[in-house]
Amino acid sequence: MKNENFIIKISQIALESTLLEVSTHPKPGLVTPFSNGSHKDMDYVTFIKSASAIAPYFIDFIKVGLNYKDHILNKLRPIGVMAERDMFRATRGVNTHKGLIFLIGLICAASGTLYRKKIKIDRLSLSYEVKRITEGIVERELKNIEDEKLTNGQRIYKKYGLTGIRGEVEKGLKSIIECGLPTFEKSIGVLNLNDSLVNTLLALMTRVEDTTIVHRSSIEGLEFVRKYAKMALEAGGMLTEEGRSIINRMDEDFKERNISPGGCADMLAATYMIYKIEKDMGE
Ligand SMILES: CC(C)(COP(=O)(O)OP(=O)(O)OC[C@H]1O[C@@H](n2cnc3c(N)ncnc32)[C@H](O[C@H]2O[C@H](COP(=O)(O)OP(=O)(O)OP(=O)(O)O)[C@@H](O)[C@H]2O)[C@@H]1O)[C@@H](O)C(=O)NCCC(=O)NCCS
Ligand SMILES: Nc1ncnc2[nH]cnc12
Fold this sequence. Notes:
Elements: H1 3-23, H2 44-67, H3 72-91, H4 98-116, H5 123-133, H6 137-143, H7 152-160, H8 164-170, H9 174-188, H10 193-205, H11 211-216, H12 219-234, H13 241-256, H14 262-281
């Protein structure tokens, strides 16, 4: 496959993953086509505008992996800043996809690197590449930070030691490899795409260290989310009436507590992206 075709293919999968995530329903506390979740400042259209604004940058992320051998993260950062700028412009200042830009950007770049090296692109090679690109990011961006102008993630690290999205990528997206993908693959055999994505989100909620939950509610909110998601899954998730009823109750309870697992939503998009890349490129 020529580089141009590869770039188009991966960027198409990245956009499909971004759109499918926000289109999945129900998603406790999160935006869907039928619910704004715990958010007063964003809805489904906000996310569609955001996805349209950031999608062109997926191509640039892939090209970094195709064209450069080292200092990949330093080359990705300026592209990510431009994507965030266009996201904020499209959403009138609302942070919809900051985490997703980071995750999808890294997977795009990792795909480009593997393609250049002629290494089979699958979940393990992508995991390894993301881990290599982000090696040392927790030390650099969370442990050695001054007190002024901290982001939500940095403030939460200082207070609770949670490494959030940086911990996820530095471990090679372990939550996706060990939890998200196995749940999705088990579900897609018996459920439709939407319901499989809901179950996958629940599985991610049982283990992702989502700093968005802590920032919007409390550190206790993280355990509340994990226990609730585990209970829903143990009841069958979207496969059973009881599971669906727990999920709907969870959505109401999260709204009351201002809980929004936005990081888990990003990880859901990343899970589907890796699944689709492996499925389409592995042939
Ligand atoms: C490395 C960066 C992501 C920098 O992170 P930063 O320190 O700026 O912000 P964090 O708070 O650490 O995390 C950023 C977003 O990551 C998502 N997230 C959190 N935990 C996890 C996790 N464990 N796994 C995966 N993703 C995680 C989360 O994003 C989602 O939630 C946001 C919506 O939440 P909301 O509360 O509504 O919005 P906020 O603005 O946070 O609150 P309000 O002000 O509205 O009250 C939404 O973003 C979702 O995506 C975290 O928000 C990276 O940003 C960075 O360095 N950027 C610079 C450019 C760059 O490098 N780009 C990428 C290049 S590949
Ligand atoms: N569907 C969604 N709702 C709220 N925050 C999100 N961040 C990423 N996807 C989201």
